[in-house]
Amino acid sequence: MTTNAAKNFWKTWSKSPQSATWMETDWLELEATTKLVDEFYLGDSKLAGEIRQRVAKWGATNEDRARLRMKFEKDPEEGSEGPSKGLEAPDMDDDLYKRLRAV
Length: 103
Prior knowledge:
Shape: globular
Radius of gyration: 14 Å
Number of strands: 2
Largest sheet: 2 strands, antiparallel
Number of domains: 1
Strand content: under 5%
Low-confidence stretches: 80-87
Structural class: mainly alpha
Mean pLDDT: 83
Number of helices: 5
Order of helices and strands: HHHHEEH
Distance between the termini: 6 Å
Strand order of the largest sheet: 1-2
Helix content: 40-55%
């Protein structure tokens, strides 16, 4: 069974402002990291450092974004931060969840 944490991780990152410019290789990295997150929440705490290193490269925290010189403008139409243009998140939620853990 896929953890809810892994599903939330995928959905959060796939809708993040950072993902607006991602290429296919970035999406594959997100998929691989989501699998690690699933294993982490199933009890493999050794994966915490690896997950942290990966998400830091995407600008997970304010500190990471400052180090990477990332800035996001508020979208006046939406009234919140987020991508208004760019690549759409691949529609692979169900497929990914099935591959994370056999249902």
